[in-house]
Design brief:
globular; 3-stranded parallel sheet
Amino acid sequence: MLFRSSGIVSSLARPGGHLSGIQIRGSTPKLMEWLLKIVPDAKHVFVPVSFDTKAAGQSVFDLKEAAVQLGIQVTLAEVSNDKDIDSVLGDLPADADALVLLHSIKVFSNIDKIILKANETNIP
């Protein structure tokens, strides 16, 4: 691995307080395009998000821009802890066509709950 051979980190799993990941901005519009390939009639997406990283804010900005261009309504639900995840998933809009997950440590740390809800409501 490049990072290991460079000496920046000894392991990506245990970086020791050093660099452990990168974000490449620009993938969110493509995410929305792919969503429409999977769910062509999607008009409303539900987005649980925690602004726990700078990437989350950038991704929300990019998502909103892409959604406007594609004619998709976005419902954001901000979460800051595990109870918030349970609450926002309980308030999933009935007309939501899909769940969209952006760069968020808190959201992805609760991925099992999110997948369970998506399966229960039969939405991608």
